[in-house]
Structure formats: structure tokens, C-alpha cells
Design goal:
This protein is α/β, with parallel strands linked by helices and about 325 residues long. Helices cover about 15% and strands about 30% of the residues. It folds into two domains: about 5-90, MurE/MurF, N-terminal domain (Udp-n-acetylmuramoylalanyl-d-glutamate--2,6- Diaminopimelate Ligase, Chain: A, domain 1, 3-Layer(aba) Sandwich), CATH 3.40.1390; about 95-305, 3 Solenoid (UDP N-Acetylglucosamine Acyltransferase, domain 1), CATH 2.160.10.10.
Length: about 325
């Protein structure tokens, strides 16, 4: 692909400082950029390195100037970076049609624009929307609905009655709608509580590889539109996650917890069951959340606490060895030993 700097700038809502007709043939990070490449710098340090690189042009902020390189100046360099990657590395196109090895129930409804790849299984009364992609080895359970433009990567399993919105992306190995972890002790053994609910996933959700979203025991487990979930995340039964939230790798959310919109859970956060997390909440990595959190707060630690309180405790813990040493010295002076 070859585009001029002016053509790229137009798509990025930017302005060109330098040769607007210079051809750009690729996008590369600073340390690997070659002549013809566009690169990206979001601060002064990276911009200096980009000027010293072999790149032809640099995406940078509105105030950037250079006598060495062409600059595409934009309001938000990181956002422009994401858009530029999509220009130079477009998503693969999948041809509509059904692979001969796919197994499809006669009651299933599949839009003619959908792509059904090798070894997919589509069960009874499933509805597959326009431009859906099932890449290969996907299982879609009875009465499930896959919205228009959804893309399921290889070996994704969708249990029965799951509802998936438009433009959802689910990566390899994810399991949506498996039984929730529900048991009740009965005299001498753990009796399984039947999990008869389902999962609802809103539009524009992305779910990472090997993530699991359990079906509700009764009712639905819900993931709000625009939410992005990393790899290896566990979402328990009847959890409700609001819109446009971020769940990083290895997060675990126990049953019936409720998370607001625009909430961020950093890596390995654990959320106890039945608690409520407000809107625009941020929870730090490895935190264990055992209490409700109001809107807009940042919490850290095990057990998680408001960030200022948690930081004070961390500082106090760091001072404990010196404090113990002083106490030992005082004991020695008092006892004479």
C-alpha cells in the first residue's frame, strides 16, 4: 500500500508539515523504521529518536516541528497511531459462504453475507447476522444470536441462548455461557445448582483469548456495549458489567457482582460476589475487592481500600523494619541487656 502524507493526514484529521506528496508505504516503530515508513512519537524523547530514525514521516502533537522529517500533526497522537495502524494493516477479508465441513442445523438462520469457516457447528434455531465471521472450529449452541459484523476467532465456544451484539470480537479459546460455579452443600456432598440462565453481550465488545463468561443461574450475565476484556479473565454467573469498561488480564469477578460503566480493573484484580462497583472506578493491579465502591474512586490493595489510605498503609509497612529496630534498641537500654 502506498499513500501520500496528505492522504494519511486527511484520514487522521491532521495537518502536514513538509512534503504533502511524499509517498508512505508502511508503518513501523522508531527503532525499525525504514525510508518510506510512517512512525509515531507522543513525547519529546520519542520525537527526537524519530527524527534520528530512517522514517520518512512522524505522527506527533500539534506543536511538533522538524527540519529533518515530514510531520503529520494531530490533536491526539496515540489515537492517530491506532487509526494509522488500521490504514496500513487492514483486517483480513472473509468471503461469504459456508465451508463444506461445517455442520449446520436445518432450523438455523444464516445471513448470506456471513462466513462460516471449517469445522464450525451451528445448532438448532441459531441466528447469524450479516457479515458475521466464524473463522473455524466454532460451536454455536441452540437458540443463540450472533449480531451483524461479529467476528469469532478459532475454537470459540458459545453455549445455548447466548445473545451477542453487533461487531463483537471474541478471540480464540474463549467460552461464553458455560455453567456458573453454583453448589449447595447437601448432607455430605456438594449438590449442583442448575444454571439455567444465559449471557447477553452488547455491541462493540471485545473478549480476549481463553476468557470465560458464565451463564446466569437464573436470568442473564450481562456485558455492556463497548466493554473490552483481556485474555484469561473469568466473569462469574449473573455478573453485570456496564458500558465501555476495561478488564485487564486475569481479572476474576465472582457471581452477581455489578460493575458500572467506564470502570477499569487492572491485571489480576479479584471482585467478591454480590458487591457493587460504581461508574468510572479504577482498581489497581492484584487488588482484592470485598466492599462496594462508589462512583469515581480509585482503590488499591488486599483488601482493597481507597488509594490514599492504601498508599499510607504501604508506606507504613515499609517503615516497620526500622521501627522494630528502634524498639529493640529501646528495650536494650531499658533492660540493660
Amino acid at each position: 500500500m502506498t499513500l501520500t502524507t496528505a492522504e494519511i493526514a486527511k484520514q487522521l484529521a491532521g495537518e502536514v508539515l513538509g512534503d504533502a506528496n511524499a509517498p508512505l508505504t508502511g508503518f513501523a516503530m522508531i527503532d525499525r523504521a525504514q525510508a518510506g515508513d510512517l512512525t509515531f512519537a507522543e513525547n519529546a524523547e520519542y520525537f527526537a529518536a524519530a527524527e534520528a530514525s530512517a522514517a520518512t514521516a512522524i505522527i506527533a502533537g500539534k506543536d511538533a516541528t522538524s527540519t529533518k522529517k515530514i510531520v503529520i500533526r494531530v490533536a491526539n497522537p496515540r489515537l492517530a497511531f491506532a487509526k494509522a495502524l488500521a490504514i496500513f494493516f487492514p483486517e483480513p477479508k472473509f468471503v461469504p459462504g459456508i465451508h463444506p465441513s461445517a455442520v449446520i442445523a436445518t432450523s438455523a438462520q444464516i445471513d448470506p453475507t456471513a462466513h462460516i469457516g471449517p469445522h464450525c457447528t451451528i445448532a438448532e434455531r441459531v441466528k447469524i447476522g450479516a457479515n458475521v465471521v466464524l473463522q473455524s472450529g466454532n460451536f454455536i449452541g441452540d437458540d443463540s444470536v450472533i449480531g451483524a459484523g461479529a467476528n469469532l476467532f478459532p475454537n470459540v465456544t458459545i453455549y445455548s441462548r447466548t445473545q451477542i451484539g453487533k461487531r463483537v470480537r471474541i478471540h480464540a479459546g474463549a467460552v461464553i455461557g458455560a455453567d456458573g460455579f453454583g453448589y449447595v452443600f447437601d448432607t455430605s456432598f456438594h449438590r449442583k445448582v442448575p444454571q439455567v440462565g444465559h449471557v447477553i453481550i452488547g455491541d462493540d465488545v471485545e473478549i480476549g483469548a481463553n476468557t470465560t463468561v458464565d451463564r446466569g443461574a437464573l436470568g442473564a450475565t450481562v456485558i455492556g456495549k463497548g466493554t473490552k476484556i483481556d485474555n484469561l479473565v473469568q466473569v462469574g454467573h449473573n455478573v453485570e458489567i456496564g458500558e465501555h469498561s476495561i478488564l485487564c488480564a486475569q481479572v476474576g469477578i465472582a457471581g452477581s457482582a455489578k460493575l458500572g460503566s467506564y470502570t477499569v480493573l487492572a491485571g489480576q484484580v479479584g471482585i467478591a460476589g454480590h458487591i457493587k462497583i460504581g461508574n468510572k472506578v479504577t482498581i489497581g493491579s492484584k487488588s482484592g475487592v470485598m466492599h462496594n465502591i462508589p462512583d469515581g474512586e480509585t482503590w488499591l490493595g488486599i483488601p482493597a481500600q481507597p488509594d490514599k489510605q492504601a498508599k499510607r498503609m504501604m508506606i507504613a509497612l515499609q517503615r516497620l523494619p526500622d521501627l522494630f529496630k528502634k524498639i529493640a534498641e529501646w528495650e536494650k537500654k531499658l533492660t540493660g541487656n
